[in-house]
């Protein structure tokens, strides 16, 4: 599944997404991006965190599927520019290795509802939760 997602990302980012016209970090909860074709997307911190383009040690393999759990309340601490093609997002769970390109933001925004629905279905299928584990 992960190989398919990576291949899709490569294919998608090789296509020409519209030019980014505005990037707004509304820390800690979301990012808003606008494109020259009029598309405007509001992407939550949780959504961006679970769809991080980086390989992450906090990914859990369940039934052969890679799943990031317990990130409902994650926040974005900052976004650092990377060249002129994207940003590195730094989350309050200390994840900071993902570089989000403008094309990848467009892909996420264009497919937001399907991606989130599939994520929630995967969690339910394995009895997992978007909420962080309770501390004892």
Q: What keyword list fits this structure?
A:
alpha+beta; NE0471 N-terminal domain-like; GBBH-like_N_sf; GBBH-like_N; iron; metal-binding; 136 residues; 4 helices; 3-stranded antiparallel β-sheet; disordered N terminus; globular
Question: What can you see in these coordinates?
Answer:
- This protein has a single domain, classed as 2-Layer Sandwich (NE0471 N-terminal domain-like).
- It is 31% helix and 29% strand.
- It is built from four helices and eight strands.
- The strands form three sheets. The chain has a three-stranded antiparallel sheet with strand order 1-2-3. A three-stranded antiparallel sheet has the order 6-7-8.
- The N terminus is likely disordered.
Helical/strand content category: alpha+beta
Which term fits the overall shape? globular
**What name does CATH use for the topology?**
NE0471 N-terminal domain-like
Content of β-strand: 25-35%
Q: Helix share of residues?
A: 25-40%
Q: Give the topology string: H per helix, E per strand.
A: HEEEHEEEEEHH
For the sheet with most strands, the description reads: 3 strands, antiparallel
| Low-pLDDT stretches | 1-9
Distance between the termini: 34 Å
Mean pLDDT: 85
Give the radius of gyration.
Answer: 15 Å
CATH architecture: 2-Layer Sandwich
**Number of domains in the coordinates?**
1
Number of strands: 8
**The level-1 CATH class:** Alpha Beta
Number of helices: 4
Write out the strand line-up for the largest beta sheet, numbering strands in chain order: 1-2-3
Keywords: Iron, Metal-binding
Organism: Salix brachista
Protein name: Gamma-butyrobetaine hydroxylase-like N-terminal domain-containing protein
GO molecular function, one term: metal ion binding
């Amino acid at each position: 599944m992960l190989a398919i997602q990576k291949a899709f990302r490569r294919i998608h980012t090789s296509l020409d997404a519209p030019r980014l016209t505005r990037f707004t970090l509304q820390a800690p909860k979301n990012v808003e991006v606008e494109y020259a074709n009029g598309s405007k997307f509001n992407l939550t911190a949780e959504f961006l965190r679970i769809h991080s383009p980086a390989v992450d040690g906090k990914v859990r393999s369940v039934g052969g599927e890679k799943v990031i759990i317990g990130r409902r309340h994650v926040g974005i601490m900052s976004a650092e520019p990377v060249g002129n093609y994207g940003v590195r997002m730094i989350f309050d769970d200390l994840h900071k290795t993902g570089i989000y390109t403008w094309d990848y933001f467009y892909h996420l925004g264009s497919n937001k509802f399907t991606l989130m629905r599939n994520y929630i279905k995967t969690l339910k299928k394995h009895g997992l939760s978007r909420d962080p584990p309770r501390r004892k």
